[in-house]
Amino acid sequence: MSDNNIKMIVLDLDWTLLTYDKHVSKENRRVLNEAYKRGVKIVPASGRLIHGMPDEVLSLPFVEYAIQLNGGAARRVSDGETLFKSSLERETVIDILEFMMKKDCNPRLFLHNDDHLQRDKVEHALSSYTMMDEVRIYLESVKHRHEDLIDFFRNSSEEAEMINFVFNEESLMRKSMEELASFPGVDVTTGFERNCDVTKKGSSKGSAALGLGEALGIKPSEIMAFGDADNDISMIEMCGIGVAMGNAYDNVKERADFVTLSSDDDGVAYAVKRFLDIE
After folding, report:
1. Could you tell me the residue ranges of all domains in the chain?
2. Helix or strand or coil: residue 58?
């Protein structure tokens, strides 16, 4: 099988491009580099900020652009230039933060290329919550900690591209996601346990992939997207070729054009070789 019209490959990171032990396999590197040599743009897509993506990904010589914050923005890696952006309404951000501050959760506010925390909330989460090591390390590394996150935002001129919430209880997260979905003009998604994101309605990895493609002169039909979780469904459905990993959730596989091998079995390389006729 070959589709020589593919001009951009968009890749979720965790459990897609990255193996379960958080590395880019030798075969994935080789095949993606070969696709890049043929003129294909290779674009990681993550819930993280660009500077929060693994160095192993950002140091890949073929990664020029990245989608961050689950579609909140698409930027050039070298200088942070914005090619696509989708921001929440300011009053909605304040209303959501005021509502969620009453709950046992840790809010994280993303403005442009930085994230911001409320000091007492993050200190409580780090001392009391059970969380993935990766999440803990990331929260510990966030430099911007405010005594009053809402007051900080009110006095900021920056727009918010995403709000993230970390919980200690999965049931509280699920209930909160239902409540958050009732706020106007927002979408609520989750990429992994006890963690959810609020973005502008219609903002998604898929919309960012298409927005970046438009900025680069690439049509939706010329984009190939890979993912494994609910927050990847948009790009799997909206891009020309949507690929679900072998380890993806069943509902993701159902929406994909093709199901490849798992992330630990070079699933990205397997599908790229199949569709681009790479040896």
Report:
1. 8-86+203-276, 90-200
2. helix
Quote the CA–CA distance of 234 and 255 in Å, as a whole number: 9
| Helical spans, DSSP H, in the chain | 26-37, 55-58, 90-100, 119-128, 133-141, 149-154, 170-180, 205-215, 233-238, 250-255, 267-276
Q: Angle, nearest 10°, between helix axes 90-100 and 170-180?
A: 150
pLDDT at 68: 93
What pLDDT shows up at residue 4? 63
In the block, residue with structure tokens 């040896």:
279
CATH number of 90-200: 3.30.1240.10
Inform me whether the pLDDT recorded for 156 exceeds 80: yes
CB 102 within 8 A of CB 87: no
Q: Supply 169's token pair.
A: 């209880």
For 240, list phi and psi in degrees, rounded to 5. -60, -45
CA distance 205 to 185: 17
Burial annotation 7-34 (CB, 10 A radius, 16+ → b, else e): bbbbbbbbbbbbbeeeebbeebbebbeb
Question: Quick check: 238 and 207 in contact, CB under 8 A?
Answer: yes
CA–CA gap between residue 258 and residue 9 (Å, rounded): 14
**Residues 12, 43 contacting (CB under 8 angstroms):** no
Q: Which residues contact 221 (CB under 8 A, 6 or more apart)?
A: 5, 240
Q: Class of the 8-86+203-276 domain? A: alpha beta
Q: What gap in Å lies between CA 220 and CA 201, rounded to an integer?
A: 20
**pTM to 2 decimals?**
0.83
